[in-house]
Amino acid sequence: MAIVVLGICGCGSAPYMDLRHPIYLVPDKSLWSGCDQNPEGNTACRATRFQRVKEGVNQWFDYFDEDNRPRVVIISSKKGLPAKRVNEIIYLKIKTGRCGKEKSGRNFAACYNWAPFSSPEIVFDRPDLVTPHLMAHEFGHALGRRGHNDVPEGEYSVMSYKLPTNVLLRDIKIMCRLHHECRMEKRKQHRRNP
């Protein structure tokens, strides 16, 4: 079964994320929807979703050694944000139907939304779609990857529509071409937890 993912950007290009400074992710209360009725309990449900988001982000940054690794900070509310920050806050949400529909009429699984004068957001269509794969794909859009097919056919980049996909070294190289501050020369040769 293929999951189709759509990255939507508003007018103009997405805000630039400077990898020398922390990127802050703030879960909207909708990200925890259904956790209060989860048989494993609210706390376990939240921890699982948090871990899936973290795993998706780490697919990108596990390629870097600790000295050059970009930092992503997941904060439970805006109250925990520092007053001075360089990068836009990215909100994480679950909103059914927010990402549009496929030709078949089904809702897209997830999307990255941004429009001028608004904060960027990664939106999942349903709670069960908060997965490391979809998070990694949409986070790729937040890092500046617009397209879905900018790697050769058959390579299964995380930015393609095909499954299974992973963040490939080619994805990292493309990201580093978009980010002059990216320090590829000191990246790890092998990813942790492939």
N-to-C CA distance: 22 Å
**CATH C-level:** Alpha Beta
Number of domains: 1
Total number of strands: 5
- Going by helix content, strand content and strand pairing, the class is alpha/beta
* Corresponding CATH architecture: 3-Layer(aba) Sandwich
Give Rg in angstroms: 16 Å
What's the overall average pLDDT, rounded?
Answer: 84
CATH topology: Collagenase (Catalytic Domain)
Explain this structure:
This protein has 194 residues and is α/β, with parallel strands linked by helices. It has one domain: Collagenase (Catalytic Domain) (3-Layer(aba) Sandwich). It is built from 3 helices and 5 strands, in the order E-H-E-E-E-E-H-H. The chain has helices at residues 42-61, 132-142, 169-178; strands at residues 23-27, 72-74, 90-94, 110-113, 121-124. A 5-stranded mixed sheet has the order 2-1-3-5-4, covered by helices on one side. Helix 1 (42-61) links the parallel strand 1 and strand 2. Helix 1 (42-61) packs across helix 2. The radius of gyration is 16 Å and the shape is globular. Residues 1-12 and 185-194 have low confidence and may be disordered.
